[in-house]
Specification:
about 250 residues; mainly beta; Immunoglobulin-like; 2 domains; 5-stranded mixed β-sheet; 5-stranded antiparallel β-sheet; 3 helices; NigD-like protein
């Protein structure tokens, strides 16, 4: 059984810009705090999970536009071999060592492995193209909001791999990471604080989470690639956070 779709959107951003009075003294490293998590049961093809969190940032450089797809915000690094050939899932003639490059026109290489270390097919390590399935390494800076769901079992937490749960058959359903947009271009560089409501859509939540206890763990990057603190929610269940909409 498969989750039909997982989409990500920003519902609302509330900003408190520094005024003409004494500006708040925030660090240039973004700081975040968990506010709430709400599950909305629409009783239709998909439901939504709304994560609300507070933030503050001393230089206000949080946010990416949808068209920022070049270094350092590119989606993934290609893997090439010693012949400078793209490494694919099915290629039997790969020649190690393997390298990472940010684009096919960028000559800069980073050593990935001295051996052919391709894992079995999965949604995180491969990208399906028009002609083949490429071995890749996802770029963590492509998305500026990173979220994990962690299931609690026997007192221990484990990260839930949604794509693996559904058999890696739809790689659009790998995770719930996404992009916080630029709040206000004219105010980049000024202290910002506020609350972000981040919405994730899927019919997979009831299927995967069921009646289990879970929590979310998340962090953000700013445009200078500074990483915030990592925040976790308290233990939750779907029943605890459900807001039914008929």
């Amino acid at each position: 059984m498969h989750s039909r779709s997982i989409q990500i959107s920003i519902l609302m951003v509330t900003l408190l810009l520094s005024s003409c009075f004494e500006p708040p003294e925030f660090s240039e490293i973004p700081k975040i705090a968990f506010n709430s998590l709400r599950f909305i049961d629409y009783e239709t093809e998909r439901d939504s999970m709304v994560l609300s969190f507070d933030f503050e940032d001393g230089d206000g450089n949080i946010g990416l536009t949808e068209n920022e797809l070049f270094f350092p915000f590119h989606p993934f690094d290609y893997v090439i071999d010693a012949r400078d050939s793209l490494v694919t899932f099915s290629d039997p003639d790969v020649e190690p060592p393997l390298y990472l490059v940010s684009s096919r026109v960028d000559p800069t290489k980073e050593l990935l492995s001295e051996t052919d270390n391709r894992p079995p097919y999965n949604c995180k390590d491969y990208q399906v193209s028009a002609n083949d399935t490429l071995y890749i390494r996802k770029n963590p800076y492509h998305n500026n909001l990173h979220i994990d769901f962690l299931r609690k079992r026997s007192g221990e937490y484990e990260v839930i791999d949604f794509a693996e749960t559904f058999g890696n058959t739809n790689c659009s359903e790998v995770d719930f990471n996404g992009r916080i947009p630029i709040f206000d271009v004219e105010n980049l560089g000024r202290s910002l604080s506020g609350t972000i409501n981040y919405t994730m859509f899927s019919i997979g939540f009831p299927i995967v989470l069921r009646r289990d206890t879970f929590k979310v763990r998340f962090f953000i990057y700013d445009r200078a690639l500074n990483v915030s603190n990592t925040v976790e929610s308290p233990d939750l269940t779907l029943q605890m956070i459900t807001d039914e909409r008929n």
